[in-house]
Amino acid sequence: MILLRANIQNNRILEHLLLRLAQGETEALTPLYEQTKDALYVYALSLLKNRMDAEDIMHDTYLRIWHSAPRYCSEGCPMAWIYTIARNGCMSLLRQRSHQVALPEGDWLEAFLPEGSVDPDARLLLRECVQQLGGEDREILLLHAVSGLKHREIAELLSLPLSTVLSKYHRCVKRMRRLLNGEDTA
């Protein structure tokens, strides 16, 4: 219940900031950036698997937000709109390159678990588990667990049926549990 209230409050704040941007108040971009930068970076990194590319896409995303704010239609989840802008930029970049660049060792873990958030042994174990997940599974896990998007919002963002997102997420969680318990070696 507390998380739901926080999410609703966060949505209201982001809606207000986007409205201010739409009205030409450029100073609203700073608090919008501060509230969304971490989740957006992890998301872009999960798609691009390259730190510099993720940072470039973030920059482009905030420029597009600034220019597109007047066209934003409030539908209750401003983060879904922001993720859509970022995802379109990521997909465009990947199409230009026609391949994905391998994510350097440690980048995933650093974005997923900041240094000092867990002990080093747990960090190693989680690194192994996250690396075992496929790209779309990892993306769904991060969008829900790290970025806080609802499954419905993830389905819209990824253009997948809700049932597919739900089943992939639950299979991913089960696989992570098995990996953490040492039951899954495949």
Question: What would your notes on this structure say?
Answer:
- The protein is mainly α and 186 residues long.
- It folds into two domains: 1-103, Rna Polymerase Sigma Factor, Chain: A, CATH 1.10.1740.10; 105-186, Arc Repressor Mutant, subunit A, CATH 1.10.10.10.
- Helix content is 74%, strand content 0%.
- The protein has nine helices and no strands.
- It has helices spanning 2-22, 29-48, 51-68, 78-97, 107-112, 120-132, 135-146, 151-158, 162-180.
- α1 packs across α2 (29-48) and α3 (51-68) packs across α4.
- The protein is globular and about 55 Å long.
- The N and C termini lie far apart (37 Å).
- The model has no long low-confidence stretch (mean pLDDT 79).
Outline the fold blueprint.
Blueprint: H1 2-22, H2 29-48, H3 51-68, H4 78-97, H5 107-112, H6 120-132, H7 135-146, H8 151-158, H9 162-180
Helix pairs in contact: 1-2, 2-3, 2-4, 2-7, 3-4, 4-8, 7-9, 8-9
Notable characteristics:
single chain; 186 residues; mainly alpha; Rna Polymerase Sigma Factor, Chain: A; Arc Repressor Mutant, subunit A; 2 domains; 0% strand
